[in-house]
TrEMBL record:
One of its GO terms (biological process) is cardiolipin biosynthetic process. The chain crosses the membrane at residues 20-37, 44-66. It holds the Pfam family PLDc_2. Could be a virulence factor. Its main location: membrane. Residues 217-244, 393-420 form the PLD phosphodiesterase domain. It is found in: Cell membrane; Secreted. Its EC number is 2.7.8.-. One of its GO terms (molecular function) is cardiolipin synthase activity. This is Cardiolipin synthase. SUPFAM superfamilies: Phospholipase D/nuclease. CDD domains: PLDc_CLS_unchar2_1, PLDc_CLS_unchar2_2.
Length: 478
């Protein structure tokens, strides 16, 4: 009897093992098929397939949690609604200089948006200049206030903005606020809770404690937008926190650059916010309070470029590649984080080898040490090709700007890394204006303080170089 029982248990265990193996094989095969059909990046596809075959249960769980872009389907559904179609705006295309006609044609094809004339742009440095102008504009708004920020803290300046938004609600303005679900507080978004308590309509972008509903590090809204009455907008790099008020000497000062934009192009900025708000809340914003007729406010031509892991995937990166390819004399950029993919690195290298001046300004020390380490391991091909890389001395500067030939410039929220170019929802503004391009070019040149050379990289100790190279493997997620 004991022998029979032992044999039966052995057969049962063998059957169980076979079933588990069959289940693992089926799961690995299904996930592999999904990866092959969905993943565009070869390296990522190979990594996911290798993981699910090496560990079917663990690999599948990770893929279901972090590997599937659930935002893409919803975002595309929203953008198909006629009221949110960008290419149905009544703006007339503006003329651009003949030398930039190919770039204009390419970006029009990428974005589906026309270049718009009649734009006015004002530049602000740091929160010290930007915040008073933004608060004054909120106080003057009479019909609508739209605000979106990656970081919105419940500190002194944050509470000042919250009070201004509450006053706008009290005087009858339609107010909508979007805060990122991680940047503004992760599990405890204090500013969002205060806004809600005061009756200010506010939404959290991709916020959930459930990992299958919110991949914790990816798919963030990194946009900084403030739109008043549908006719005045602010955008750039400035978040809402006391650290941006440099003149008050915070413990970690953050320098930055922000822009006030007026004219017909504000409609494109408003449309970007409308799509985001519909995604966050399901509410569609319509009517003259959000999209009024707009008169010219200057002589600049501009166009909005949005990017994100949905129907807009890699649009900002593609525009950057087009601009680099069209450069004739100079390419100058400043960014707080510099970890572009190999395609953009190659484009910059090719530009330098064909005799174009290429200057890249990065912080000596950013607010993310790991990114600094990875950058040192990433830039050797650029230095070999003649790209000049400069270290901006502290305090940390969060500005992002690109100037081409001192005639064309690209401003907004996107950093030069894979997170901004592929994983985050970003907004930049393409500007054809020699005066602004020269101003930004001069600003960037003024930050070329200390040149980083191949000798500097070679002087790192072996353990440091090993650390930097290891961290660089995380490039797609830094």
């Amino acid at each position: 009897m004991e022998e029979i029982l032992t044999r039966w248990l052995g057969q049962t265990a063998a059957i169980r093992t076979d079933l588990i193996a069959a289940f693992g094989l089926a799961v690995s095969l299904c996930v592999s098929i999904h990866v092959l059909l969905r993943k565009r990046v070869v390296g990522a596809a190979m990594a996911w397939i290798g993981l699910v075959w090496l560990s079917p249960v663990f690999g599948t769980a990770l893929y279901l949690t972090f590997g599937i872009n659930r935002v893409e389907r919803r975002a595309r559904k929203l953008k198909r609604r006629p009221s949110l179609q960008y290419d149905e705006t009544p703006q007339a295309p503006a003329a651009v200089p003949e030398a930039y006609a190919p770039l204009d044609r390419a970006v029009r094809a990428i974005t589906g948006l026309p270049m718009v004339a009649g734009t006015g742009i004002t530049v602000f440095r740091n929160g010290d200049e930007a915040y008073p102008a933004m608060l004054a504009a909120i106080q003057q708004a009479r019909r609508s206030v739209a605000l979106s920020s990656f970081i919105f803290l419940d500190d002194e300046i944050g509470q000042t903005f919250i009070a201004a938004l509450k006053e706008a609600v009290d005087r009858g303005c339609e107010v909508r606020v979007i805060l990122d679900g991680i940047g503004s507080g992760y599990f405890f978004p204090a500013a969002w809770r205060r806004l809600r308590r005061l009756g200010v309509p506010a939404g959290l972008f991709m916020h959930s404690v459930l990992p299958w509903r919110m991949p914790f590090l990816n798919l963030r809204t990194h946009k900084k937008l403030l739109i008043l009455d549908g006719c005045i907008a602010f955008t750039g790099g400035v978040n809402i926190s006391d650290g941006n008020r440099v003149e008050r000497k915070p413990s970690f000062p953050i320098r930055d650059t922000h822009f006030r934009i007026e004219g017909p192009v504000v409609e494109q900025l408003a449309q970007a916010f409308i799509v985001d708000w519909a995604f966050v809340s399901g509410e569609e914003l319509e009517g003259a309070a959000w999209l009024p007729p707009l008169a010219p406010a200057g002589d600049i031509t501009a166009r909005v470029v949005t990017s994100g892991p949905d129907a807009d995937i890699e649009k900002i990166a593609t525009v950057v590649l087009q601009a680099i390819a069209c450069a004739r004399r100079s390419i100058r950029l400043t960014t707080p984080y510099f970890l572009p993919n190999d395609i953009i690195v190659g484009a910059l290298c090719l530009a330098a080898t064909r005799g174009i001046e290429v200057d890249v300004v990065i912080p000596r020390r950013s607010d993310h040490r790991i990114v600094d380490w990875a950058t040192r391991a990433h830039i050797d091909p650029l230095l070999e090709s003649g790209v000049r890389i400069w270290l901006d001395e502290p305090p940390f500067d969060h500005s992002k700007a690109l100037s081409i030939d001192r005639e064309w410039c690209f401003i907004g929220s996107a950093n030069w890394d894979s997170r901004s170019f592929r994983l985050n929802f970003e907004l930049n503004v393409e500007v054809y204006d020699a005066a602004l391009a020269r101003r930004l070019d001069t600003f960037i040149q003024g930050k070329c303080e200390t040149r980083l050379t191949q000798a500097d990289l070679a002087a790192r100790s072996h353990p440091v170089r090993l650390r930097d190279a290891a961290v660089r493997l995380l490039l797609p997620y830094l």
